[in-house]
């Protein structure tokens, strides 16, 4: 199964406190647990985000996501499509 993280955000006054990282990790682990009960697994995570370095760095560090494509001027800024392969293993390693 491919998991898509959508509309994940942290208010600016709460940023740089690990909240975004925790939201990503907990989301992936929760979905993985539910899927495991159904004999399924998360194969990949698809992320679309603004093409700014901070957002990309977060998804790369937490999930191992890599940029696969860029879309110029989508909505109000450039967007990137990132994909993380086998993200559950990476998330589990980062929590221990």
CATH architecture label name: 3-Layer(aba) Sandwich
Main sheet overview: 4 strands, mixed
* Main structural class: alpha+beta
Note the beta-strand portion.
25-35%
* Number of helical stretches of at least 4 residues: 3
Shape: globular
Number of domains: 1
Number of strands: 4
Report mean pLDDT, rounded to a whole number. Answer: 85
Radius of gyration: 14 Å
Q: Percent helix among the residues?
A: 40-55%
Question: What is the strand and helix layout of this fold?
Answer:
Elements: E1 2-5, H1 19-37, E2 44-50, H2 53-63, E3 66-74, E4 77-85, H3 87-95
Parallel strand pairs: 1-2
Antiparallel strand pairs: 2-4, 3-4
Helix pairs in contact: 1-2, 1-3
Fold and architecture overview:
With 96 residues, the chain is of the alpha+beta class. It has a single domain (2-95), classed as Aminopeptidase (3-Layer(aba) Sandwich). Helix content is 41%, strand content 30%. The protein has three helices and four strands; from the N terminus they run E-H-E-H-E-E-H. It has helices spanning 19-37, 53-63, 87-95; strands at 2-5, 44-50, 66-74, 77-85. The chain has a four-stranded mixed β-sheet. Strand 3 and strand 4 form a beta hairpin. Helix 1 packs across helix 2 and helix 1 (19-37) crosses helix 3 (87-95). The radius of gyration is 14 Å and the shape is globular. The mean pLDDT is 85.
Could you write a compact summary of the structure shown?
This protein has 96 residues and is α+β, with helices and mostly antiparallel strands.
What features would you highlight for this structure?
4-stranded mixed sheet, alpha+beta, 96 residues, Aminopeptidase
């Amino acid at each position: 199964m491919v998991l898509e993280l959508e509309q994940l955000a942290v208010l600016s006054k709460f940023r740089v406190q690990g909240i975004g990282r925790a939201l990503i990790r907990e989301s992936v682990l929760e979905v993985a647990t539910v899927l495991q009960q159904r004999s399924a697994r998360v194969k990949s995570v698809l992320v679309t985000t603004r093409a700014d370095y901070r957002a990309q760095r977060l998804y790369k560090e937490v999930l191992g996501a890599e940029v696969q494509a860029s879309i110029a001027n989508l909505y109000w800024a450039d967007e990137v499509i990132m994909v993380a392969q086998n993200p559950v293993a990476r998330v589990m390693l980062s929590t221990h």
